[in-house]
Amino acid sequence: MIGTFIYSNGRWDSAPTSDLYLAIEVQNSDYAQVDYHLKHGRVGRVYLGIQPKDYFDNERASRDVDLPTHAQGISTWAKTVLDRDVAIDDITALLAPAGIDTPTEDVEKVLLRFLALLGLPTPSR
Questions:
Q1: Which of 5, 2, 42, 43 is nearest to 120 (CA)?
Q2: Count of structural domains, the chain
Q3: Per residue in 64-117, pLDDT tens?
Q4: Which of 78, 70, 81 minimizes the C-alpha distance to 118?
Q5: 82 lies in which domain range?
Q6: pTM (predicted TM-score)
Q7: pLDDT digits (tens, 9 = 90+) for 40-66
Q8: Alpha-carbon distance 118 to 1, whole Å?
Q9: Is the residue at 38 inside a domain?
Q10: 3-class DSSP state for residue 47?
Q11: Residue 35 placed within a domain
């Protein structure tokens, strides 16, 4: 499931069709980048699997991620866009923490659990 997937206006597409969207870029089986877009240009970025700075052993490969703050942001996105309440702790449990050299499972599996938590269908290619 490598590729870029964008969810906006109730469907997966190749480009956003709304200001409120979720963009997922699966790099490989070790990490995926998730960008969530809220109103007024607010954007957040988290990772599933492993963070790029740990994957590449390079602090400049990605910024520090405040997991609780971004879990709150994703929860807000889910409520705003999907009208779905998602527990912050459940989201945090799926996000990649800093300092992990090897993910505990393939990012595709984590991504499927992330999508299920949000109530989103699996994107098709």
A1: 5
A2: 1
A3: 899 999 999 999 999 999 999 999 999 999 999 999 988 889 999 999 999 999
A4: 78
A5: 3-118
A6: 0.94
A7: 788 999 999 999 999 999 999 999 899
A8: 18
A9: yes
A10: strand
A11: yes
d(CA 45, CA 33): 7
Extract the tokens encoding 28: 């490989």
What integer best gives the mean pLDDT of the chain? 94
| Residue 69 in tokens | 């703050």
Q: Which residues pair with 45 in a beta bridge?
A: 35
Per-position DSSP letters for 2-44, written without gaps between them: -EEEEEETTEEESS-SSSS-EEEEE-SSSEEEEEEE-GGG-EE
Partner residues linked to 44 by β-bridges: 36
Q: Does the residue 123 lie in any domain? A: no
Which DSSP string do the residues of 81-119 spell out, in sequence order? II-----HHHHHTTBPPTT-SS-SS-HHHHHHHHHHHHT
The one-letter amino acid code at 66 reads D
Query: Of 60, 44, 43, which is closest to residue 52 (Cα–Cα)?
Result: 60
Q: Looking at the domain assignment, is residue 55 inside a domain? A: yes
Amino acid identity of residue 122, one-letter, is: T
Lookup: tokens for 2: 């490598």
Look at residue 101 in the predicted model and tell me its pLDDT: 84
